[in-house]
Write a structure and sequence with these properties.
Length: about 850
């Protein structure tokens, strides 16, 4: 997980566990800076953030809310599409690769957008990506390859916005009478000062005016509209009255949707009678209230008698703005769009709305079919099938969902909608800038294409895994690329926008994340006092390099595809700092490895948390959030993954809590200061004497400066043992962090009431990190450090510190052929964590 967007966090700022408590107030902006999100992408410009700060100064309650609401409502709206485009331009040069991992002998392609006409590319091996002067600094090794040279540069746009496309067909080139119908649930927020939103295409066979066409739209004022173009190019745009009801947020100007809110549906239709020029627009809200004033039928006369035809594909949720440019993207759900080859009567349209109309349409797309794919199916005899582009959300409730079934696989007929967004992205589809054929002799490791033009620089990281069939090392490191994708922001060094922690421009949560786009926070050299994910993981890569360990690097995709067989050759497997997002295949792979004698070092925190399937091509992952410590939660009935049909949320609530196989699971997070660990009685058990070789009995562990949050090894996000949830009974709790401030909050999945929960570190004994050790059959074992910040302490004092010593003790023993001491077979006394440790 990551910091919630709290307006205020209060806590103690400790230099170490003995320091005097000092109350501090952490502003929202400062709080987000601690995780590298000072460039937080929001849908408001800076004045909106200032309004939030002003609002905090008001008294609590309604009297304080009104100024905040007014200030935010007056803030200018920054569409995510424009925000991302502007930020990419400001970076000067940016790129991405067609793969996150590759092996010697294979070719990797790099897509580059440069604001200057020339750029230089070099391949480097990344060792330490954190420029913090208190640490080792940037370490990278230039790799001599044929790809290292200058290239011609040009700007490339990021094509945000999802839609469905149907190939051109003579049946769709309508020149006379027709009717278009659909169920729609539009979600664009159109209220507030300065929010000039454009028209949105619903079902369109529309080109530019010269080539003609027709289309059902929502216009700039939120009104249902039919656009018609005559063969000569004259255009008429007929709109209904009144506008469709807009979505209204709790605080005007803030477009974050409340958790668990579904959408409001309308049945809409537009008919055109060529002989009379009559247009009729119907809009009927799906509402139990008959007095809804937006229920209306609008009749207009036009001079149009025939429609110009074109050969462009028909689009759903967008329209063609020129021969090669799409635009007018729609936000919201669309269910069962249809086209008829005549002007239906009012009675026929009413029958169609109620599902009692049997006339054959030109096309009728049933989105409840092939949900797991990008296909859309036309059920008419013409079979005018199409496909979706840029990952609109599927497996979402349709207009007829009755709340009796939450699993779409059991009631597909109630899941006939697709949720489109104007900022969805799958494949940026940029032209290739250059390619690299990986040399056969290149060692496994973390690499990047370093791009430079003028004063600008970017890195495009990738992993080189060992070539299949090559002799393995004794140690493997799993690079958490699923988690990189989950946090993957575009345009800033933050994890917004476009990551799974982001919201779309309509306020709904982002549930798909693709690798085929610039992920600009998966980079070295980000200025932050809390390195996160990729940059934090280079702390471990650097330590392994410094200590002289030979390591094979793999990614989550490798583990997902190959499972336990991938890990079987290795004596020891290491995780990085935050392996939060895991698929079922990955969990089963790790478990299979451990149950067959493998040894795992879990060197992070909040791992194995969210259910995360990967699409069959490996392009993207999907997350359906619910019931966890999270940034958004899905709507009712939308918690099952479209890729696999499996329920989303936490592995804990799927009966596969991480405590069951690594001994610990997520318990708290905080981002002011870390704390040291104190040894527990279990640390003196003979089974773990090798771990504490060279460590004094009363020595605090990690009680020194860190590259993560400045101090301490136990911090950022914390895990602990919990025997009630599934920690194996023979697990040894070796050490626990202590002294956390109230900036550290207990996870919400363990708090059932808001009053008296005492979730902060000063009150709650469950706010701690537990270092644990447990054995598996056949000589397997797990060592868990339970804190994201652990690896940030490895390099202190030229790598001569007790965090480094313990890590080295475990790794050298785990990677050796020396058997581990067997467990005694006795059941430990119940560990309640009742003391403050």
């Amino acid at each position: 997980m990551a910091p919630q967007d709290e307006d205020l966090t209060t806590g103690d700022d400790r230099a170490d566990a003995q320091n005097t408590e000092q109350a501090t107030e952490v502003s929202r902006r400062d709080f987000l800076k601690t995780v590298g999100v000072s460039g937080l992408a929001t849908t408001m410009a800076g004045t909106g953030v200032d309004a939030l700060a002003q609002g905090r100064q008001q008294q609590a309650g309604p009297t304080g809310l009104a100024p905040l609401a007014r200030a935010v409502a007056d803030a200018p709206y920054m569409p995510i599409r424009r925000e991302v485009a502007d930020n990419l331009v400001k970076r000067g040069i940016v790129g991405y690769a067609d793969h996150l991992r590759i092996q010697p002998g294979e070719t990797i392609k790099f897509m580059v957008s440069s604001e200057l006409p020339r750029y230089r590319a070099d391949i480097v091996r990344l060792i330490h990506g954190d420029a913090n002067p208190k640490g080792p600094g940037i370490k990278e090794v230039l790799v001599e390859t044929s790809a290292n040279r200058e290239y011609a540069g040009r700007h490339q746009d990021l094509p945000l916005g999802s839609y469905a496309t149907v190939p051109d067909n003579p049946a769709l080139r309508i020149s006379g009478s027709f009717t278009v119908t659909a169920w729609i649930a539009p979600t664009t927020q159109r209220l507030g000062a300065g929010q000039a939103m454009g028209a949105e295409g619903v079902v369109t066979k529309w080109a530019d005016a010269e080539r003609g066409g027709y289309g059902l739209f929502i216009d700039e004022s939120g009104r249902l509209a039919l656009w018609l173009s005559e063969p000569g190019g004259r255009v008429e745009k007929i709109h209904a009255e009144p506008p469709l009801r807009p979505w209204i947020p709790a605080i005007p100007g803030l477009n974050q949707r409340p958790q668990g809110v579904s959408t409001s549906w309308y049945f809409v239709a537009a008919s055109f009678h060529a002989e009379t020029g009559k247009v009729v627009l119907y809009q009927d809200p799906l509402s139990p209230f008959p007095f809804d004033h937006t229920r209306a039928v609008t009749e207009r006369s036009t001079a149009v008698k025939s429609i110009g035809t074109n050969n462009v594909p028909l689009l759903i949720a967008a329209c063609w703005q020129s021969s090669h440019v799409l635009g007018r993207y729609y936000n919201g759900k669309i269910d069962n769009p249809r086209i008829y080859g005549r002007a239906l009567t009012a009675g026929e349209i009413e029958s169609l709305e109620r599902g009692r109309f049997d006339d054959e349409p030109i096309a009728s797309w049933d989105f409840s079919r092939d949900i797991e794919t990008d296909s859309i199916v036309d059920t008419s005899p013409r079979q005018l099938h199409g496909r979706t582009v840029n990952l609109p959300m599927r497996a979402v409730t349709g207009h007829n969902w009755n709340a009796s079934e939450m699993d779409y696989t059991r009631a597909r007929d109630q899941y006939g909608a697709i949720y489109f967004h104007d900022d969805d992205i799958d494949d940026a589809r940029w032209d290739v800038g250059f390619e690299l054929r990986v040399p056969e002799n290149l060692r496994s490791g973390l690499y990047a294409a370093r791009l430079r033009t003028g004063p600008h620089e970017d890195y495009v990281p990738f992993v080189i895994r060992p070539k299949r069939g090559a002799a393995p090392a004794r140690i493997a490191l799993l690079i958490p690329t699923f988690s990189y994708l989950a946090y993957g922001g575009t345009g800033t060094s933050a994890f917004r926008p476009l990551s799974l922690y982001s919201r779309h421009s309509d306020g709904s949560g982002v549930c798909y994340s693709s690798r085929l786009r610039p992920i600009t926070n998966m980079r070295p050299k980000i200025e932050t006092n809390n390195p996160w994910q990729f940059m934090a993981d280079t702390h471990l890569v650097d330590w392994l390099e410094h200590k002289g360990f030979t390591v094979d690097f793999y990614t989550d995709e490798d583990l997902h595809v190959e499972g336990a067989a991938l890990l079987a050759p290795y004596k020891a497997v290491l995780t990085a700092t935050h392996p939060e997002y895991y698929s079922l295949q990955m969990l089963n792979g790790l478990r299979g490895y451990l149950e067959n004698g493998g040894r795992l070092m879990y060197l992070g925190g909040n791992g194995f948390y969210w259910v995360t399937p990967m699409d069959p091509t490996g392009r993207y992952i999907e997350v359906r959030r619910r019931d966890g410590t999270e940034h958004w939660q899905g709507a009712p009935g939308e918690h099952y993954h479209s890729l696999t049909g499996e329920p989303g949320g936490l592995w804990r609530f799927r009966g596969m809590a991480p405590q069951q196989f690594v001994g610990v699971g997520f318990t708290a997070q905080g981002f002011d200061r870390n704390c040291p660990y104190k040894r527990m009685p279990d640390s003196f058990d003979a089974r773990v004497a090798f771990i504490f070789d060279g460590i004094a009995s009363n020595e605090l562990i990690g009680n020194h400066p860190s590259l993560v949050l400045g101090f301490g090894a136990g911090g950022s996000e914390l895990d602990r043992a919990d025997f009630a949830i599934g920690t194996p009974p023979h697990t040894l709790v070796l050490a626990s962090s202590f002294g956390h401030s109230d900036a550290y909050q207990h996870v919400v999945e363990q708090i059932n009431t808001s009053n008296g929960a005492h979730p902060g570190g000063t009150d709650n004994p469950l706010v701690r990190a537990d270092m644990v050790y447990l054995e598996y059959p056949k000589g397997g074992a797990v060592f868990s450090t339970s804190a994201i910040a652990w690896c940030g302490s490895l390099s202190f004092n030229s790598y001569d510190n007790n965090v480094s010593r313990i890590t080295e003790n475990v790794l050298r023993r785990f990677s050796s052929d020396v058997p581990l001491p067997p467990p005694t077979g006795t059941t430990p006394a119940l560990k309640t964590g009742s003391d403050k440790r």
